[in-house]
Amino acid sequence: MEGQNKKMIIRNCLVIRVLILFQIFSFFLLIIFPQIIQSEEEKSFTRQRSGQVIFTPHERSDSEPQQVHISLVGKDHMRVSWVTEDKNARSVVEYGTKQGGEYEAKAKGYHTSYNYFMYQSGKIHHVVIGPLKPNTNYFYRCGGLGPEFSFKTPPLNFPIEFVVVGDLGQTEWTTSTLKHVNSKDYDVFLLPGDLSYSDTQQPLWDSFGRLVEPYASRRPWMTTEGNHEIEILPVTEPTGFKAYNARWPNPHKESGSNSNLYYSFELAGTHIVMLGSYADFDDESEQYTWLVDDLAKVDRKKTPWVVVLLHAPWYNTNEAHQGEGESMRKSMEGLLYEARVDLVFAGHVHAYERFTRVYNNNEDPCGPMYVTIGDGGNREGLALSYKKPVSPLSLYREASFGHGRLRIVNETHAHWSWHRNNDNDAFVADGVWIQSLSSFKECWNTQHHNHVHHEEL
């Protein structure tokens, strides 16, 4: 018996050593040869080379805040999140409308941390501040140390502008995308999954946080999870989303959700739903039940616009990731259609594509307009191959890195534009005016006939 125990201990030690070597080896491969580590599915289609992974170093003291980012909580509060290496650092934020350290208010929060295999995170701080005035510049300092940051709160009423970027990563293309985003003002940053592309290499989460800090500390970033956030490892890390949940908490409780992977929030007459492509979504799931309740609460007279974000697209004519969102579409598309959702944004496919208004694989004037925008700057490159002939549902498609902007002008009209960043300056390659479905009387007629066919793209 004692001999068997020794053998098991030796075997477990060998397994741990192999995992350690694998982690170290794969980390350097991600940095030096970012396109070597690909799944068989990813190798089945052609990609344009994306550029090297950028590792952003930690250049402040251990007690100073790093990786600062903000996110919306309720109608007039903001969550400030940051990391310190110093375990004694305080979870406190001083803030006010005056620059230069004359802060009018202070709020205390909480901190957390996590272990992932051989990695130990720093102290991750989260502090909710407010109430805050709309469309107002605030200055703030985290933990009583380090630089002063500032942000602007979103407006209370229209117009409001959202930047939408999926599959961001941390490459040269990422920096190009963020530079182009920053060249023009906006109110809120929406990210439909695949943030850091850490893929179990936890130092890349820290690097990503430092890379995006100049942007994510100035405007609220609202995210949902992608497949690269799952990060399951056999034996040592059997549950997913450990880093994502610890670092990027969302206001899910405020919207009645029990999961950080799906939630909703409202801004300036716009209800935004962040769905979880990698949480259960069948009609007996908690997410499905939550979505039914969430959509039922929306008063379209007060909130004329409804926008949904998720990771794996339900409509896609690219060769990459074909059919991966189909099960979720079959489960939830009817709910979005009956609620007259205006727009659905997805990532996952590393390209841009805009569809007409669609329901059940057919053009429908009362269905959402679907947009794939998974072209933020990921390390895997672009998905260049599209299905032929072109589907009549697909109105514009292009495999280039870029970002999108949704400017909701008033209760009835919004403008969507896609900005290609292959050029020195962000170039508006696609744009369209959109009318809200809340203003389409025929779509609320109970006699409206749904033309349901089962034609594939």
Write structural notes for this entry:
- This is Purple acid phosphatase.
- Belongs to the metallophosphoesterase superfamily. Purple acid phosphatase family.
- Pfam families: Metallophos, Metallophos_C, Pur_ac_phosph_N.
- Keywords: Glycoprotein, Hydrolase, Membrane, Signal, Transmembrane, Transmembrane helix, Zinc.
- The chain is an alpha+beta fold.
- Helices cover 20% and strands 28% of the residues.
- A hairpin with a 6-residue loop joins β25 (413-420) and β26.
- It is globular, with a radius of gyration of 22 Å.
- The relative contact order is 0.13.
- Residues 5-22, 24-47 and 447-457 have low confidence and may be disordered.
In short:
By secondary structure, this protein is an alpha+beta fold. It has helices spanning 2-32, 40-43, 172-182, 203-216, 242-247, 286-296, 326-338; strands at 47-48, 66-73, 77-84, 92-96, 105-108, 110-112, 115-116, 119-120, 123-129, 137-142, 149-152, 160-164, 188-192, 221-224, 263-267, 270-274, 305-309, 343-346, 352-359, 362-363, 369-373, 382-383, 394-398, 402-408, 413-420, 427-435.
Distance between the termini: 61 Å
- SS content category: alpha+beta
Q: Return Rg in Å.
A: 22 Å
Q: Any idea what the CATH superfamily of the largest domain is called?
A: Metallo-dependent phosphatases
Which fold name fills CATH's third level, the topology of the largest domain? Purple Acid Phosphatase, chain A, domain 2
Report the β-strand fraction as a percent range: 25-35%
Q: Any guess at the CATH architecture of the largest domain?
A: 4-Layer Sandwich
Shape: globular
Task: Characterize the largest beta sheet: strand count, sense, and whether it forms a barrel.
Answer: 8 strands, mixed
Return the domain count: 3
Q: Could you name the CATH class of the largest domain?
A: Alpha Beta
Amount of helix: 10-25%
Arithmetic mean pLDDT? 89
Q: Count the E strands.
A: 26
Number of helices: 7
Low-confidence stretches: 5-22, 24-47, 447-457
